Structure prediction request, 254 residues.
Amino acid sequence: MILHTDVSGEGEPVVFLHTGLQTGETELEIQKEYFNQDNLVILPDLRGHGKSVAEDFTDYFAQTAVDLSETLDDLKIQSAHITGCSLGGLAALMFAKEYPEKTKSLTLSGIMAEKPSNWEELNRFDAENVEKMLEHPDTAAYFDRLHEGNWRELLRLTQEGSWYPFDETADLSMLDMPVLYIVGEQNIHEVRGTITYPKMNPNIHVATIPFAGHAVHLDQPEIYNKILETLLSKVKVGVGNDAMLEESLNDGEQ
Prediction:
């Protein structure tokens, strides 16, 4: 399906994929304003979110990869820098695996490299918190206004213990494009990826952001934007030395 998409700016295309139950326009305004001065910024609503109405959520991440590919084709974009956080990070990863020829670079945040030993407990805790949140009529009304489709069914799927594609996040060895893994220091399960990912693939570079948690781009947007900007600039000029790229990313974090 062709996703509802906000497009602004000119230059190298950069796709930002939002977290669960948000949309590109509601969550990524800071990134849009920062990057559309020199880039074509693309903010899709993922399947089942915002105005991207869908009823079929089976094999969700495989479908989102196809959705994004069809959306880029519709925009006549051959390849783009793909970035995503949390649900959007998982969608970005799946897209890069399925369509490497359409992925200039990949930036991931809010995803886990391995399944926590207490995953079922963590997922159940998150589901209970969401249920409590939705008990407030104003909160439910907000999401009803935000999403034209059946967001409650999509939310239900993410409350199932088996929904997270750990088999996909565990193996990034096949990615041959520049990959940036950004995490907040406060999320211990995601920080582990900063150790495991570079060992499996020299194309993967990592950045740990202080005073940030799961949603790094919201907790520390200025630092996040600077680091991502460094990656985009180095890919644009064609840096061929991993050490040079690593040094540049470290400079951007300071």
About this structure: The first strand starts at residue 5 and ends at 8. The longest helix spans residues 221-237. Confidence is low (pLDDT under 50) at residues 240-244.
